[in-house]
Amino acid sequence: MLTRFADRLVEVHLSDVGPLGEHGAVGALARIAFNGIAAHLPERCPLIVESIIGADQIERELTSVVQAFELEIDEGRRGHRSGGRI
User: Fold this and answer.
1) pLDDT at 57
2) Does a structural domain hold residue 9?
3) Residue 83 domain-assigned?
4) Least C-beta-crowded within 10 Å: which of 9, 20, 33, 64?
5) DSSP per-residue codes, the chain
6) 9: domain range?
């Protein structure tokens, strides 16, 4: 479905989800799952990280997302995904 309708994708919300549906930090299994779809997402599609974490965990969470989607960090455009960068 993702490959067929990728051109209609406006944004992707991501986090890990606990047993009660709560958003949490992106763990190893979520990274693997996101990595499996990363190549099918349009470059223009923003990634919205919905993980509910403490301020001290933000850098680690962004690193997990970068690893999952195999992105490069562009400090001048933090939080913006374009051309394979975040």
Assistant:
1) 95
2) yes
3) no
4) 20
5) -HHHHGGG---EEE-EE-TTS-EE---HHHHHHHHHHHTTS-TT--EEE-----GGGHHHHHHHHHHHHT-B--GGGTT---SSB-
6) 2-77
